[in-house]
Amino acid sequence: MTNLEEEIRRVFGDVWKLEVGTEVPELKPDTVLLETGLDSLGFAIFVSTLDEELGFDPFVLAEDAYYPQTFAEFVAFYEKYRPAA
Amino acid sequence: MTELSKRIAGDGGDPVLQGSGGRSATKADLAAAGLPDGIAPTDRIALAVADPFEAVRMLAALDGRVEAILLLSRSLSPELVVELARKARCTICLSDQFSALGGDLRIVCPDDPAGSQTGPAGVSTRWLMTTSGTTGVPKIIPHTLRSLSQSVYRFPPATRPAWGLLYDPTRFAGLQVALQALIGGGRLIVTDPDAGIGEQIATLADHGCSHLSATPTLWRRVLMTPGHARLALRQVTLGGEIADQSTLDALAKAFPDARVTHIYASTEAGVGFSVTDGRTGFPEAYLQSAPGRVRMEVRDDILWLRPAETALAAGADGIEIDAAGFIRSGDRVAVADGRVTFLGRDNGAINVGGAKVHPETVEAVIKAVPGVALVRVSGKSSPVMGALVMAEIQLAEGADMEETRAAIKAACRDGLNREAMPASLRFVEDFEINASGKLVRAGT
After folding, report:
1. Per-residue pLDDT reduced to its tens digit, B78-93
2. What is the CA radius of gyration of chain B?
């Protein structure tokens, strides 16, 4: 089982390089994702790329709409909806 | 006094317009807003003012004093500004963002110290709106202050709603918010469009914003910003994209004291109607009797609307309008279980966070890349933006996948707006071809 948080960090870095192009910011647990400089479109591409690479999208799977703000909340959201291996 | 400033509610003492940096204006200030010298009642003005506070102030000054105002978004390129001004026969560009433009356009700065005129305002000014496509030259849609303000709701004076403006006020949705706030008995709070979303929300909260309108994509962004809890909202309005159930639910939960309304509107037809029952789509009963004065019909799964007021004539700039005055919206709908729901645009346009992307335009750019045999562009649903652009590509014989991928990305960066650039490229072996020999397009 791969480390989900590391996977998310790696994909964030890849999307950042393509969409923003500057040095990838450090993601701390309390980093607010939308205040890193990633706009809505960049964030949407991040979520879409995660779906392609991880094979699931918690935003689609969640019954109740939930919008994580910090990086820790984002990772926890993905952990919660990660399909059982 | 201009027609717009006459119709602004309030007694003149309270601010009706507030912005970042502590700026504010009362009804009296807006009524006194003058025009730079050298603008005559017969002039047609291209308004390209990037600062939303100044753009609203200039609208109050221009209405009734010029023949036409062409409202141009701050996001337009100089080339499109020139092209649209030429199409609208404008000779003067009122702008705080350009100092020189091609063509015969004379540029005038809104705060030109050369003098200002506040003379009589007796002209019936045309308000020329532009559509918000991401590709090609936007369409120009003629309006009047009357047709634009037909859906303004007059709030009782005690309510004094404080409307936040997160939209571009030169676009249809943003102008609706501005007119609702100014004419409908409230005040308008504009934010700095160059500031981050957190800072914009802080500006709104600091000024006591009680009513806020945004696209579903923008609302999801607000919900992902920690400071949103400071907004004491009584009204949450969604427009510009299909309002999906999960976003409506999340907003109702985040702002329990607010009424959640989603609005269906198109620049072509003027505003349509609003829905407040918290459910996506609208009641089928609206087809018999819609709120407001708009009438609606569904013909071949497409919604047609007849607004009460329109400045459109049949055959106007690519708009389909029938003899009875019904305008074809181009929105595909489904009717089931007493509810009408929106499916998307009938021309296959993909709505990426409110920006319309035509798949054909994207396909044309990709098709021109060496190594590409066939391409199909479609929308991929996104919980963040509503939809994203996806491209499927069939390689030409012998073409290298990674080289082609890099070439496609470079061509898209050069030839397309960011919203139109495919968020995902997929290489396929083969495409499904339908009975008439055409590529099968997803979702149509």
Report:
1. 999 999 999 999 999 9
2. 23
Classify each residue of B18-48 as buried b or exposed e, where b means 16 or more C-beta atoms within 10 Å of its C-beta. Answer: bbbeeeebbbebbbebebbeebeeebbbbbb
Q: Do B198 and A32 touch (CB under 8 A)?
A: yes
Nearest CA of chain A to the CA of B49: how many Å? 24
Three-class secondary structure of residue A24 per DSSP: coil
In chain A, which residue's Cα lies nearest the Cα of B382? A44
Chain A: nearest CA to B197, how far in angstroms? Answer: 8
Does the beta carbon of A20 lie under 8 angstroms from any beta carbon of chain B?
no
For residue B302, pLDDT over 60 is answered with: yes
Instruction: Name the pTM for this structure.
Output: 0.81
Phi and psi at B75, nearest 5°, equal -85, -5
**Distance in angstroms (rounded) separating the CA atoms of residues B407 and A35:** 31
ipTM: 0.87
Q: Which long-range contacts (CB under 8 A, 24 or more apart) does B363-367 make?
A: B363/B391, B365/B411, B365/B412, B365/B415, B365/B416, B366/B391, B366/B393, B366/B408, B366/B411, B366/B412, B366/B422
For testing contact with chain A, the best of B384, B388, B409, B418 (most A CBs within 10 A): B384
* 3 state DSSP class of B14: coil
Cα separation, B29 vs B31, in Å, equals 5
Question: Is A65's CB within 8 Å of B217's CB?
Answer: no
Chain B positions in Cβ-Cβ contact with residue A57 (cut-off 8 Å) = 383
- Confidence at residue B444, expressed as pLDDT on a 0 to 100 scale: 37
B255 within 8 A of A71, measured Cβ to Cβ: no
- DSSP assignment, residue B66? S
Query: Cβ(B378)–Cβ(B443) under 8 Å?
Result: yes
Q: Based on the number of CB atoms within 10 Å of its own CB, is B313 exposed (0-12), middle (13-18) or buried (19 or more)? A: exposed
Three-state secondary structure call for residue A47: helix
CA gap B351, B216 in Å, rounded: 11
Find the closest chain A residue to B355 by CA distance: A41
User: Do B124 and B151 form a contact (C-beta atoms < 8 A)?
Assistant: no
Contacts of B113 (CB under 8 A, 6+ apart): none
CA distance B418 to chain A (A): 9
For every residue of B286-314, DSSP letters joined together read GGTS-STT-EEEEETTEEEEE-SS----T
